[in-house]
Structure formats: C-alpha cells, structure tokens
Amino acid sequence: MRNILAEDTNRENLGFSLTNLLTPKLQVGLEYGADSDEWFPQINYRLRNAENGWPAIILGTSSAWPSGEVDGSAFWISAAKLLNPRSSGSISISYTPDDDSWKTPGSFNYVLSKTMEGSLIWDGENLHPLVTWRGGRINLSFILLGGEDPTISTTVAF
Asked: How far apart are CA 39 and CA 31, in angstroms?
C-alpha cells in the first residue's frame, strides 16, 4: 500500500499492489490505483543472475509509479548489481505507451543498519529519496516523491 500525504499531486493518492513469486526468476502481481479505479499488471522476470562481476538483467512491466509525469504502465529492462556489501545500484531503459516516452531510470541503495536502508530512485526525470525500515514481515518506507511530496509505503509479507 502506498499513501501520498501531500495534496494536489498528479499521482494516485492511494495505491495497492499484490505480488507472488511464482518461480525463483518470475514474480507476477497486480497494482490498483484507488483514485482512478485502474488495475496495472506487474511482472518481473530475471533473465540472468548477477554473477562473475556482471549485473543481473531483469525484464518487466508495472505502473509508471513513482513518476508524476506519466500514467499507465511502463515496460522496462534493468541491470542491477551489488556494488559492495552495503550498496547496490541499477539502471534501466523504460518505455511508457501512455505518452510514447523512453526514459533511463536508475537507483542507488545503501544499507544503514540491520533494519534501515536509504535509497535514491531516479524515474528518468525526478529524484525520489526514501528511507525504509525492515521489520521482518512488515516494512515501512518514507518517500519524498520528486523530493517534495511525502509518501508512506507499507509492505506486508504473507
């Protein structure tokens, strides 16, 4: 569940997603935008594992969140790699049919402690810093969408 606390943004104020790991390489699910009453497929398929110094390659589709510039689904291919024991990064190429745009999103993640990590997510146009508390089955993230719109994301594993 994601809840945007700021008013007057061009994003869904409340969103839900449910995913399931079908195989070690394939995750499928659905995302739901409560404001728009729209459903988006979520599929992640790992084409190759990160090994021998090479990054993992992942192919997928999901909503264009966290971007506030486009709606609908985005399709992407990403390369992700553990940079050292405490940090990882990714770079992607994404296509959004809604506005016929290509973008180059990326991310950087840093482990702050056993239960806390910080991330920077670049959606191809805006930077979204976040801090996540990992509490086993429940994870909470505080996100500043575009560096200014406060958002809470809650993940419950079951």
From this structure: 6
Domain 12-156 falls in which CATH fold?
Answer: Porin (2.40.160)
Peptide bond into 150 cis (omega under 30): no
SS3 assignment, position 15: strand
User: Residue 46's Cα: distance from chain center in Å?
Assistant: 15
Instruction: Out of 4-8, 67-71, 138-142, give the one with best mean pLDDT.
Output: 138-142
Cα–Cα distance, 65 to 99 (Å, whole number): 14
Q: What is the pTM assigned to this prediction?
A: 0.86
67 burial (CB, 10 Å; 0-12 / 13-18 / 19+) is: buried
Query: pLDDT (tens digit, 9 = 90+) per residue, 67-124?
Result: 666 567 899 999 999 999 999 999 999 999 988 999 999 999 999 999 999 999 998 8
Any residues with CB less than 8 A from the CB of 150 and at least 6 apart, and which?
A: 4, 5, 6, 142, 143, 144
Of residues 108, 103, 143, the one with CA closest to residue 124: 103
